[in-house]
Design brief:
This protein is an alpha/beta fold. The protein has 2 domains: 3-54, no CATH class; 83-314, Metallo-beta-lactamase, Chain A (4-Layer Sandwich). The protein contains 12 helices and 15 strands. The protein has helices at 3-31, 43-54, 56-72, 120-130, 144-147, 150-156, 237-248, 263-273, 278-292, 302-308, 317-322, 332-350; strands spanning 83-85, 88-95, 99-106, 111-115, 133-138, 162-164, 175-176, 182-185, 188-194, 203-207, 217-221, 224-225, 228-229, 255-258, 300-301. A 7-stranded mixed sheet has the order 1-2-3-4-5-6-7. β1 (83-85) and β2 (88-95) form a beta hairpin. α1 (3-31) crosses α2, α2 packs across α3 and α7 (237-248) packs across α12. The termini are far apart. The structure holds zinc ion.
Amino acid sequence: MRPRNNRIMFSLAAFIFLGVGALLFYRRYSAKRSSMATRPGGFLFKIGYFLYTRTRLGYMYHLKNLTKMRQKFPEGHSVVTPVEFQGLKICPIPLLEDNYSYVLIDTTDSVAVVVDPSDAEAVQNFLTEENVKLLGILTTHKHWDHSGGNSTIKSRHRNIPVYGSSSDSIPGLTHPVSDEDRIQIGNFNFTVKFTPGHTRGHSVYILDGTPYSAPDSLFSGDLLFIGGSGRMFEGSPLTMLRSLDTVCHLRDDTLVWPGHEYARDDLKFAMTVEPDNISLQNKLKWVEDKRKERLMTCPSTIGEEKLYNPFLRTSEGKIQQNMGVKIEKDDSEKIRTATLAAVRQSKDSHSYRL
Ligand SMILES: [Zn+2]
């Protein structure tokens, strides 16, 4: 082999070695405590995150993970029960290690919309079992554990719209959305809220419950979990604070359908932030009982979340004090931003989740 070819081969091998190494770091960091190098902003984190979100390697990793998790949880990570209203059925689908996709069925017309279908096969099997026609896909953000099934599902259901933000590279995107957009698919009416922070294009969808005599439903992706919030990969604490405020302003009875089953872990962490909070203690106990039998913990409501979720409680003096936030000037947004940053940092060193 000529020296030039040797150099090319060496560079290729080095790239693959670095890439695989970085992905391994990314995986490791997703479940365990972070080190300086793998924290957001750290060198290895940046490489791993770039490869995961922007290259084929990320998708290959996702497919490998799907196979692994299907073997680990042949029946899904949680036991789920659809929630039914008049003419509407909301069906959580447990996918991967702790993700939820949601199939919303209009039971009058036997049509459905799916939110964040990371596993095309599992979602397709569910649609076939339910004998419903798929009308569209809503995507909260680009991460493969939310959008990984978009392209395959779209190829099976020709001409269905795929909604999501154009600021995120969402697979199969046909209908870019903006803040306050109204989406009508069949009889379903959604409002879009642009909620950047976790990713730069993260968006959430609110289903109008009125036609079904139901409360509204928020599909919150990785912005809001039960007792927690997603990591700030692509946004500042101030950006995230404003996104969290957006959902805080929804009606208190709005149902919260999060992207992950993180409730137990998140509420345990919340106890370190606000140990005297009775609502928090009660919710943790309720969640622990549910999880003993691997039962799903969703939905909660916005009203409930405001009582115990530390990421929505940054205006609480007690939390600011417990987080050691000291700002002389009486600037409420500044204090709350500093509190959110401190809660986030504390959570990341407590247990590291995506
Ligand atoms: Zn995510």
